[in-house]
Amino acid sequence: MLKTGERLDDLELKGLKIIQNPSYFCFGIDAVLLSSYAVVRKKDRVVDLGTGTGIIPLLVYGKYEPKDIVGVEIQKDVADMARRSVELNGLSEKITIFEGDIKDCYNYIGINEYDVVISNPPYKKGKSGILNMSDTKAISRHEILINIDELCFSASRLLKGGGRFYMIHRPERLKDIIIALNNNKFNPKRIRFVHPKVNKAPTMVLIEAVKCGGDFLKIEEPLYVYNEDGTYTQEILNIYGRC
Fold first, then answer.
1. Widest CA span of the chain, in angstroms?
2. Taking the mean position of all CA atoms in its chain, how far away is CA 205?
3. Are 153 and 200 in contact (CB under 8 A)?
4. Which of 1, 93, 105, 138 has the highest Cβ tally under 10 A?
5. Which pTM value belongs to this model?
6. What is the tens place of the pLDDT at every residue in 18-52?
7. Cα 161 vs. chain centroid, distance in angstroms?
8. How many CA atoms lie within 13 A of 223 on its CB side?
9. Are 69 and 83 in contact (CB under 8 A)?
10. Crossing angle between the packed helical segments 148-158 and 174-183, to the nearest 10 degrees
């Protein structure tokens, strides 16, 4: 299953494992937080936009066991790793990796058919300072192939009315995110800021939006990652299943 330069990582969740290559963009805490923040039910059909090596489909299936999950990834080699991870875990009947562009994937995987869309998109606006526009890490971090409005448009096309869209992003992009959601029939319902420590500014924001949902918005309690001594907080340990 492994190719040159790849490694097999244990997700410490129901025996699930993932194939990764350190030369590409390996998953971090943001994917773990997002998969925990999403509300997913067993009857739900789920799409992960920009799935990378398939970390969110694997975590979401391990936590919630929804009806089925589609991971969408445009980069051929990365999609191949995701597909092999799915096969390795014996989940080919539950998780499908679609190699294609987020911007038009709804034409191939279905319009208004899904209950949940999840995305951990590129955080950085624009393309300035990028030397190699085809570099895998640059594509994962910068809005090279898709921007926030295009992402929200595709999520809206995929979701049924009342469907839920979950995203993790950077707080400094919140204005852009809210505008893009509003432009694409979404209303934000929950927002939670993620702080490295108490008294430190947030570095991530978790968002739940509902397609054609009501106007009520809840700003949730902050999530702190580290204690003052540098150890994980109890909530983070709970999210990782290390309580």
1. 50
2. 12
3. no
4. 105
5. 0.92
6. 999 998 888 999 999 999 999 999 999 999 999 99
7. 21
8. 25
9. no
10. 40
